[in-house]
Design a protein that fits this description.
- This protein is an alpha/beta fold.
- The protein is built from 21 helices and 25 strands.
- The strands form four sheets. Strands 3-2-4-1-10-9-11-15 form an eight-stranded antiparallel β-sheet. A seven-stranded antiparallel β-sheet has the order 5-6-7-8-12-13-14. It has a five-stranded parallel β-sheet with strand order 17-16-18-19-20, sandwiched between helices.
- β2 and β3 form a beta hairpin.
- α8 packs antiparallel against α16, α10 runs antiparallel to α18 and α18 packs parallel to α21.
- The radius of gyration is 25 Å and the shape is globular.
- The structure holds 2-deoxy-2-amino glucitol-6-phosphate.
- The site of 2-deoxy-2-amino glucitol-6-phosphate (AGP) has 15 residues, from α10.
């Protein structure tokens, strides 16, 4: 998964491209590079470096490139180690064309062998390099975009690309199939980018490319066609994120900023989904007819990682409130199953980025089988949203930290609201019940703010345990997913082995792990399974396990069992996952900081996994 940015205009392209790359670093950061058209010499200048973007920045400061059109790339390696030679951009044999690419070319070996036979000289181990040599092969007496289109037709896999040529210095070409690409529309300048934050510092007007579309940009205008050459007319979208939203706003890390944004985001999300006069819940982009939703016989939730945990909570909520059978599977399993789904099924796809390859593949398979698909997504115009029958945007703003936090609670909130809406239109949830639930849901942002006021206490508790070699997280019912999410947060940013488990499973194995060298985080808010959680805690205590409890304010009993308790305000049991996750996020964050980990860009991870 990588980041692409291109610029064509009247300004110094190098500084604009580097600035844009920095805002894409969360998409991948093991190497990066830049290519500028040098108009005076009619050649292409290239600078590439392994490692983070600041290394490239130092390189171009020492050896600057002067030009007003170019492309740049930050990489998350899929084929070929993160080395200078494998970094993008890649050039043709004569160094007059340069390409940057995000995605995977599945048939690149066959193409490479054929191109080598035809005399092309390859420099890297990447799949991407076949693209630039194919363009070179077709670039004879035709415009650049025609050569690009001919080349892309031979590719099997996924791509978003940017292309420049020294022979046509006033042109930038971009195209996409399976990986996101947008156009940033400026005054006398235009941009290509993988994602919105890269261009926000320069323009708020963007155009989203759809699958199989190609764009030709000059500094004055742009045009879009299908890869087959059919003209496409597309409106620009005004992005209401300002650049600060994509910056840290004074916090040490994006993750901490995003944890603290949660109350405001949920408040806005709830308010934006309820008609002020009627009090009715509505979803602007939800285009599945109510009549269709009333006929649905079962629901299948599909997602990955944190989004999957949100889906697990939703499974309980949908079954309880909508009295409809709900299944869930991780996308990478769902897409390969012999699914018993069809027109009677509603598939709920949850994805922060809307670009996760496995979730997209699962949705495409579900649609092929006739199911209706609704997506719960954070990114405006992302691929998932453009392939769903209905969309519920969570409007959490850009989530830059690789570890998902605000998107998780926003996904949960959107799923609660959807369950209320679905229960009502299916006639199994009374208006009075919905009003009561909404009234309590509206209090959640305030409850979250109360928890965030305990950050110093939670940080101290986290630091005290940051030396431990492993953690076990236990929860039941609605908070079994909370245990999984807490464990995922810790492991992905601190690299400490951490397992989430259904507490009732303790006796079936995990209890063998309990000793004084391990912390056990027990999620035990007031609930119908509270007494069962207390029994688990007693079992752990008798084996000298270090217990950290998440409990409901006022709970004195838990204090008898462990001194280490983080309290959350009392709320409807149904909503407890929205509260208990905040201490888990903060614990993971402060442990990772204490251990000197790269919290926003953990090793081996990328923000959105757009490859299988
Ligand atoms: C969560 O902290 C991870 N970054 C990861 O598990 C993530 O939730 C998963 O890759 C799904 O991403 P998506 O929501 O963009 O589809």
């Amino acid at each position: 998964m990588c980041g692409i940015i291109g610029y064509i205009g009247n300004k110094d392209a190098q500084s604009i491209l580097i600035a844009g790359l920095k805002r894409l670093e969360y998409r991948g950061y093991d190497s990066s590079g830049i290519a500028l058209i040098l108009p005076d010499k009619k050649i292409i200048g290239i600078r590439k470096a392994p490692g983070k973007i600041n290394i490239l920045e130092r390189l171009v400061k020492d050896k600057p490139l002067r030009g007003t059109a170019g492309i740049a790339h930050t990489r998350w390696a899929t084929h070929g180690a993160p080395t200078q030679v494998n970094a993008h951009p890649h050039q043709d044999c004569r160094g007059r064309i340069a390409v940057v690419h995000n995605g995977i070319i599945e048939n690149f070996e066959t193409l490479k062998m054929q191109l080598i036979k035809e005399g092309h000289v390859f420099r890297s181990q990447t799949d991407t390099e076949v693209i630039v040599h194919l363009i070179e092969k077709f670039y004879k007496g035709v415009p650049l975009e025609a050569a690009v289109s001919a080349a892309l037709k031979l590719l099997v896999g996924s791509f978003a690309i940017g292309v420049v040529s020294a022979s046509e210095p006033d042109k930038l070409v971009g195209a996409r199939l399976g990986s996101p690409l947008i156009i940033g529309v400026g005054e006398g300048e235009n941009f290509l980018a993988s994602d919105v934050p890269a261009v926000l510092g320069f323009t708020k007007e963007v155009v989203f490319l759809n699958e199989n579309e190609l764009a030709v940009l000059s500094k004055e205008k742009f045009r879009i066609t299908t890869l087959g050459g059919k003209t496409v007319l597309r409106e620009t979208t005004h992005i209401n994120w300002d650049i600060d939203q994509a910056e840290k706003s004074g916090y040490e890390h994006f993750m901490l900023k995003e944890i603290n944004e949660q109350p405001g985001i949920l408040e806005n999300l709830i308010n934006s989904r309820i008609h002020t006069q009627s009090g009715q819940i509505f979803f602007r982009e939800q285009n599945i007819p109510e009549s269709k939703l009333q006929e649905i016989e079962n629901i299948f939730i599909v997602a990955c990682g944190t989004a999957y945990h949100a889906g697990m909570v939703a499974k309980y909520v949908l079954e309880t409130l909508c009295q409809v059978s709900a299944q869930i599977d991780v996308s990478s399993e769902f897409r390969y199953r012999d699914l018993l789904i069809g027109p009677e099924t509603l598939v709920v796809a949850i994805s922060q980025s809307g670009e996760t390859a496995d979730t997209l593949a699962g949705v495409r398979e579900a649609k092929r089988r006739g199911a209706s698909v609704i997506s719960i997504c954070n990114v405006l115009g992302s691929t998932l949203t453009r392939e769903s029958d209905g969309i519920i945007y969570i409007h959490a703003g850009p989530e830059i930290g690789v570890a998902s936090t605000k998107a998780y609670t926003a996904q949960l909130t959107a799923l609660y609201l959807f369950a209320f809406y679905l229960g009502q239109i299916r006639g199994v949830l009374s208006c009075a019940k919905v009003d009561k639930l909404l009234a309590e849901l509206r209090k959640i942002p305030g409850y979250q703010s109360q928890i965030l006021k305990q950050q110093n206490k939670i940080a101290a508790l986290a630091r005290k345990h940051s030396h431990l070699g492993s953690f076990l997280y236990l929860g039941r019912n609605l908070n079994y997913p909370s245990a999984l999410e807490g464990a995922l947060k810790l492991k992905e940013i601190s690299y400490i082995p951490a397992e989430g488990y259904a507490a009732g499973e303790m006796k079936h194995g995990p209890i063998a792990l309990i000793d004084e060298y391990r912390a056990v985080v027990c999620i035990a808010p007031a609930s119908k399974v509270y007494d069962k959680m207390v029994s688990n805690i007693q079992e752990i205590r008798s084996r000298k396990g270090k217990i950290i409890a998440i409990a409901t304010s006022g709970d004195k009993e838990i204090k008898e069992l462990t001194r280490e308790v983080i309290y959350v305000p009392k709320t409807e049991e149904l909503f407890s996952p929205l509260l208990v996750v905040l201490p888990l996020q903060l614990m993971a964050y402060h442990i990772a900081v204490k251990r000197g980990c790269d919290v926003d860009q953990p090793r081996n991870l990328a923000k959105s996994v757009t490859v299988e």
